[in-house]
Specification:
single chain; two-stranded antiparallel ribbon; 4 helices; globular
Amino acid sequence: MKFFLPLVFLICTVSCSVQKERTSTDVSDDKIQNDTLRIANDSLEYEIIIFEPGFNSWLVTQKPRGYYNQNYLEQRNRTFVINYNQRVLNPFRFDPNLYPQQINYEYNVDYGYEVNYLLYFYFVYFQQKYGQKLR
């Protein structure tokens, strides 16, 4: 069996406030559990889960919140999501283990600063870790 998918993005209906929480899993490795990041918002009805070992420890070494404005993050995320989703649709050219499913990022929705900040830096991390270029 191929390795477990390193990225899980789920954008779906939830009823939680914006939060980060440690997500419990069946995996006994605390490092992996600590690298699961969940962001949810009931007013926008979305949820994003990032499951990527090493992401949280890498994130603390990056530019702090507030360094980039939300408009910049949204523009970069749009480009990254378009390129990422195109790769999902082309599994014979791009590794389907790196691009398992599309990201439902609607351009006319204000997801807020925190979601855009984390999504942007996930894409930066993803590109560095896996040698990808999503420009």
